[in-house]
Amino acid sequence: MTVDPADVRALLDERTTAAQAQREALRAAIEQTQHARSLTFTDDEHDPEGSTASLDQARDTALLAQVDRTLAELAAARGRLAAGTYGTCERCGQPVAPERLAARPEARTCVRCAARSL
Ligand SMILES: [Zn+2]
User: Fold this and answer.
1) Distance of alpha carbon 94 from alpha carbon 63, whole angstroms
2) Which end of the chain has less neighbouring CB within 10 Å, N or C?
3) What is the pLDDT of residues 55-65, one digit of tens each?
4) Are 30 and 57 contacting, i.e. CB atoms less than 8 angstroms apart?
5) How far is the CA of 90 from the centre of ligand 1 (A)?
């Protein structure tokens, strides 16, 4: 089993589109929460609805940061694909298993190096 760059590009495109859609949804949710909070002037300490809103916002903000990291990783993978270094482990220089790339196309390292960095 070999890695076909065209397949990888399609996979990266698919993931990027999904991540961008998720990003838009999270941004909209965060804005909505902020808007709702600004309208109600809630006191987070005493208002149960206010504290739910800030929890939602904290969760959405954390998710948004995660999606941004994924998008950055996907863009980096695209760069490696263009440079011809895609599918080579950044740490040990060995090829990354195609099964790993299929599951996680933005992977920078082989399974062994990834396990070591955990
Ligand atoms: Zn490695």
Assistant:
1) 32
2) C
3) 888 999 999 99
4) yes
5) 7
